Structure formats: structure tokens, C-alpha cells
UniProtKB/TrEMBL annotation:
One of its GO terms (molecular function) is uracil DNA N-glycosylase activity. Excises uracil residues from the DNA which can arise as a result of misincorporation of dUMP residues by DNA polymerase or due to deamination of cytosine. It is found in: Cytoplasm. Its EC number is 3.2.2.27. One of its GO terms (cellular component) is cytoplasm. SUPFAM superfamilies: Uracil-DNA glycosylase-like. The keyword DNA repair applies. The gene is ung. This is Uracil-DNA glycosylase. It catalyses: Hydrolyzes single-stranded DNA or mismatched double-stranded DNA and polynucleotides, releasing free uracil. The keyword Nucleotide-binding does not apply.
């Protein structure tokens, strides 16, 4: 796997790319993409970093696994390419966004516009085999993305971390809560949302209020 990552992240993460685990992860990803259909496409594996520079970073949203259906995953957690029907979790995210901020439900499921404003849309695992959820877990991606979270916590100040669901909440131990703001809620998947663990969390307005209190510009969600 050719690591092509935005320059602003290179210095921060270079030491990870040189570790043995990352070399074996690269070999695994290369062979998977050769043998099987995998998502997202190779050029989009590091899209979360390409669309959100380290210097502009204000918010981190942690997902688990890329979408594994055709043409859905675009390298940003919860996001799909323009023109792709919104998956159930994204529908619930947009319903909450619409209710929280009193804005229309968004037409495009592509969250690049969030990323470009400083929202790092980070999946814990950056690749997946088509139609096989979780197929690239426990191969090294989690070690890498945990290191990303730790580096952000260490190098930045006053970042808002959004931890949605049990998996994301486990990342709390990687974050210095004295320096950063953390908001937690249930996962937006129908299973969790329909049990009352998602709707009404108001994370979009709360995030903007926190950013403004820290002298930063709000996100245009």
C-alpha cells in the first residue's frame, strides 16, 4: 500500500508508517485489494486526512468500519459519494442535524464539506472487503488510528471529540480530557436510535457552542 497522506499529517504520523505493524498492515491491504473488491478505492483510503488538514482540525468524529456496499465508502466515516442513497446511520445523523439546527435534511450524503472545515471523519478501520463487514479489523488499522487520536490529543488544544456508540466511547482513554472537549451519545444506527439512545443529543449545536466559546468558528453542518 502506497501511503499518500496530506503533508500536514506527514510529520505527525511518519513514525507510525515506519513501524513493523504498519509494514505488515500495508502488505495485507495490498494483497486484499489485488484479490478482492475492497472499499474505499485505493486513492480514498486516507481521504479523512486529505480533506481535513492537521492545522485546521477542530472536531474529531470516530466511526468503526467503512461501508461495504458498492460505491458507498469514500474514506470519510458515515459519508457516501454524491448520488448514493443514504445508509440508515447517515439518515439518523441527518434527522438529528435537521431537528437540532432547524435546517432542511441534507440532499447529499457526502460529508467532505464538514471535513474541509476541520472535522476529521475517522474510521477506526480504514478499509473493508466488499459485503464483509469488519473483514479488515484487527490487522493493524486500529493501532494506527489509535495513534492518530493520541497524537491529536497530545499536539492540539481544545478539540471537540464526538464519540457515538460503545465502540467510539472506548477511545476516551486515548484523549486528554483536561485539554479537550468530549461529547458522547448512542450510535446513530437504527438499532440504537430506535431504543432512544441517539435522537435529541444536540451534538451539532453543542459542538458549535463549544467551538465559539474557545474562540473558533462554528462548523456549517
Amino acid at each position: 500500500m502506497q501511503v499518500k497522506i496530506a503533508d500536514s499529517w506527514k510529520n505527525i504520523l511518519q513514525s507510525e508508517f515506519e513501524k513493523p505493524y504498519f509494514e505488515s498492515l500495508s502488505e495485507f491491504v495490498k494483497s486484499e485489494y489485488k484479490q478482492y473488491t475492497c472499499y474505499p478505492k485505493g486513492s480514498e483510503i486516507f481521504a479523512a486526512f486529505d480533506n481535513c488538514s492537521f492545522d485546521d482540525l477542530k472536531v474529531v468524529l470516530i466511526g468503526q468500519d467503512p461501508y461495504h456496499g458498492p460505491n458507498q465508502a469514500n474514506g470519510l466515516c458515515f459519508s457516501v459519494h454524491d448520488g448514493i442513497p443514504h445508509p440508515p446511520s447517515l439518515i439518523n445523523i441527518f434527522k438529528e442535524l435537521s431537528a437540532d439546527l432547524n435546517v432542511p435534511y441534507p440532499q447529499s450524503g457526502n460529508l467532505e464539506k464538514w471535513a474541509k472545515q476541520g472535522v476529521l471523519l475517522l474510521n477506526a478501520t480504514l478499509t473493508v472487503r466488499a459485503n464483509e463487514a469488519g473483514s479488515h479489523q484487527k490487522r493493524g488499522w486500529e493501532t494506527f488510528t489509535d495513534a492518530v487520536i493520541q497524537q491529536i490529543s497530545k499536539e492540539k488544544m481544545h478539540v471537540v471529540f464526538l464519540l457515538w456508540g460503545g465502540f467510539a466511547k472506548q477511545k476516551m482513554k486515548l484523549i486528554d480530557v483536561k485539554k479537550h472537549c468530549v461529547l458522547t451519545t448512542g450510535h446513530p444506527s437504527p438499532l440504537s436510535a430506535n431504543r432512544g439512545y441517539w435522537f435529541g443529543n444536540k451534538h451539532f449545536s453543542k459542538t458549535n457552542k463549544m467551538l465559539e466559546n474557545m474562540g473558533k468558528s462554528a462548523i456549517k453542518w
